[in-house]
Design a protein that fits this description.
Elements (H helix, E strand, L loop, with lengths): L7 E6 L4 E17 L4 E12 L5 E9 L13 E5 L17 H15 L3 H19 L10 H6 L7 H8 L11
Antiparallel strand pairs: 1-2, 2-3, 3-4, 4-5
Helix pairs in contact: 1-2
Length: 178
Amino acid sequence: MKDADAEVHKYFCNACQNTTRHVQRAVHEKSYHDPESDIQAWCTWTLWECLGCEEVMATECWTSTEDIDPRTGGLAPSVSFFPPRSSHQAKKKDYQSIPYQLDSIYSEVIQTFNTKAHILCAAGLRALLEAICVDREPSLARREVRLPQKIDALKSSVPEKIVQNLHGFPILGRQGVA
């Protein structure tokens, strides 16, 4: 494919961390037809190169006669990016003196958030909060100490407003549950 004939689209570039122009480098198309149900589908795989940093990504675009856009009445394609675009993903911050256990839990919380595993993310946030409390005050590691008490113990090292806000998180579960 010659550069002059290649399509150019704007996509978010994971490497540039910005929406940049991408040039089409290769395209493969395939169509499918099920004679029994009369359903037709088309898939287009496209290889794109960022014109800013030359990083490469791919798109997979599926269109089917079953997928109708209710707003327009036309076909509604489904597009996937490889690797997934990171424009709406949380990025892990690097802390210089974070204990290994806390860093490990924190990394997993970021991963579950970015994969849209929201229930697991909430459980991870709760585990991280408990681990931070115990790291700050090891005597809180006892099972009979409830999370609200652990959060209150942070008052000596965390601003009062933050402690109040932590009590408002729905990840804490029902009142009185550890």
